[in-house]
Specification:
about 325 residues; single chain
Amino acid sequence: MIGTAPGLSIAVEGNRLVDGSGSTVLLHGVNLSGTMWSCLYGKAFVSPTDDAALASMAAWHVNAVRIPMNEDCWLGINGAPTDVDAYHAAIKKFVDRLHAFGMYAILDLHWNAPGTTLSHLGSGYEDFFEMADADHSPAFWESLASYFKDDHALLFDLYNEPFEISWTCLRDGCAMPRGYQAAGMQQLVNAVRRTGATQPVLVAGLNWASLAGEEWLRQRPQDPAGQLAASIHAYGVFGGYSRNIGVVAHQVPVVLTEVGEKDCTHEMLDHLLPWADANGVSYLAWAWYTGDCYRGPALIKDYSGTPTPYGVGYRDHLVNTFSAPSPAVNGL
């Protein structure tokens, strides 16, 4: 079985993620769904985040959790009903608790909105936005990276799912048809590095983060810290892994920050996950929430970790492939 590397810190070295001793780290975890919208109702989390909840994840041999975030809540703008200091403290407390269980954290800019629009719920709501917005997203990353810059057991996922933009817009930003200015990945990398933060940054590709390949390599931003990795999403995809994912993984670490199925089976995961393990590719399933796996990729029936039929395949693969995470003190 593949074990969780000792020493809870993470960095990019060549095309690998490594811990403080230089041992390869493969992330195999879950997304914690709900944090991108629960803050719009005045609370940080919609699902349990106590020790019992994390023990349930650890029983699946999860070693990483991705936390989707909303820039309005973190920055306290556009009418988000959030006490900013309390919200920041709640996110940090959860991240610290993850580390205590031997788990890495990924902080992800999941929901955003330009101007004075409150993401998803405010006046002028326009659904998902194609790319990070220049109005707030660089400020989000400068603030978040500054807050967490001494925590070396986490990664920053710069933008969840870019879509309907060009590769040059992804890198450099552009004026969008809906009338806002998109911030490019280079601008977001720069915002993180201005703070002195050196954690790995994850850069998505196009088509809702599903497209990478040679074009991602040609159009990737420059990172002065040399800590760039790729974020790719894979839902219901059979084959083509080498061309879209493997070619990138030969040069930089790849994290499949969302994998999943929406048909209550795990047939696709049964193909993808062994390939990812063999090629040094990390992955996190969507998502750790209770629900009907025929309507969405819900991994669990309850927060004690009882799997859905879809979740059974993911849990069994993790348990049969990896060791359980060891409780650890965060390597700051």
